[in-house]
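We give its fold:
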Amino acid sequence: MPGTTVLAASQTGLAHNLAEILGADLITGHIRTFPDGESKVTLSGEPAGRCVVVQSTHPPVDINLLRALLLVSEAAGRAQSVAAVVPYMGYARQDREFLPGEVVTLKHVAGLFAGAGADRLVTVDIHSMKGLEYFGRMGQNVSAVPDLAAHFAGMDMADPLAVSPDMGGRERARIFAESIHTGWLALEKERDRTTGEVSVRSEGADVSGRDIILVDDMISTGGSIVSAAGFLRGCGCGRIFAACTHALMVGDAAARIAGAGVEGVVAANTIPGPAGVVDVSRTIAGAL
């Protein structure tokens, strides 16, 4: 894409790879954080032409959201057009009013990106497709599931089974399973909205001796993965792995997941972290 610039707050592997695929100049930002918590971004170059801003809104979510908006706004003042690539979209779980008085945060996040000057917005496996509607015609979701499945296709596994930790992810597990020509199932998960405790069950799940790939869109605290792993081990499964698009791994999530017997977490490189080994830059570039 001649005349394209890729703008990122830091030189992540995803931004670098995307710039190479698009044949674009990569502009990065130097971030200085002051004692009071304020930060200043200094760009290494000037956005021009068709500008692609790459910034996930992962934890710390509010800080990274502000940086994304700053980059979009700065690009909008200089470039011909601005496409915001937000691989992980924070606040996507706040897509509706669950309890009286709750603010539907994602609706306002969408308004902020539009107000900052984004012409388009591309995200990866957004937690809520209903939430994507708030972005209107400028919003587009792409999936990392085929890329994740391709990674596992190259592994030596015993009769693998793709498992969604909850019924809401059954379509994701189905697509993953079809990509590697294996079976799938979805567990029934209930979460107490007050305590956050998760319980899991499944009727007629025969996983005896089969290696399990737990497929989810994100891993945050790891509670769902830990609960699912415990249930499946009780059913006599083989090895357990976790595949997710976004490995947030908040707090002691990695230790908890390992303690539950999960042998490894494989994620896309939508956010920085050791689990993000599956590159989705070509998938994103295809949407641009």
The chain has two domains: 4-143+280-287, 145-269.
